[in-house]
Every structure is written in structure tokens, then in C-alpha cells.
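The instructor's notes for this session suggest beginning with a concrete chain rather than abstract definitions. Hand out the sequence below and ask the class to guess, before any prediction is shown, which regions might be ordered.
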Amino acid sequence: MKNFEQFNQQKYLNLETLRKSGINVRTPVWFVQEGNTIFVRTLANSGKVKRIRNNGKVNIAVCKMDGSLLGDWVPATAKEVVDPETDKKVDRLLDKKYGLMKKMFSLSSGLQGKKNTILEIHTTE
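After discussion, reveal the predicted structure:
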């Protein structure tokens, strides 16, 4: 899909999710891409995961680390994926893309006993 071309070679993705109250919440996140699928690893009990469990309609856009947009919003759907093979694949892709920074964050989260999950995102256009 041509909408996914803007994500090539980018480091950050702004993920916009919807609260039950109707308010949009934007969160800059690391991501990896495989074909027309984007994967995000995040804390399993985070607000964005809870919102996606409730409503999988999201918007995504390329952004800077602080969340300021570098591209157009793209409508998408997101879902939580609980699959050891996908988890391993995403871990390898994140290692390759983010290197030492990813390893440091993973170590810190592991030491704190935090549980991660994977979000799988597809455009709806």
C-alpha cells in the first residue's frame, strides 16, 4: 500500500487511539514494519493497549521523538497479538532497527518485571 511508503526508514510513529469518552490520545512509539504490517511492542497494561482492546480503529503518522508529525495521518486498525513466534520476530526486527537503545530499554523493563505485548497495525485505505 502506498500509504505505508512514508513509514520506510522512519524511527517513530504517532499512534492515535480513542478513549471511550471520544477523546483522541496520541502516543509516539517505536515500530517495525514487515510488508504492509506495522508492529509495536509496548507495555501490556498501557493505556493505548486498553484503548485498542476496546476500539481497534486508530490513526498513524510518521513523527519525531516528541510526537510532532512528519507525515499525514493514515486510518488503520490495530489489534493485540499474543503469539510467541510473532514476539520473537518483532524482537529481532526491533534489535536490528534500534540496536543498543532497544537492548537497554528491554533490559530495564525486564529487571522491573514489566510485561510487554505486540500491537499489529494495518491501514484501512
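Then share the key points. The helical segments are 47-54, 84-111. The chain has a mean pLDDT of 87.
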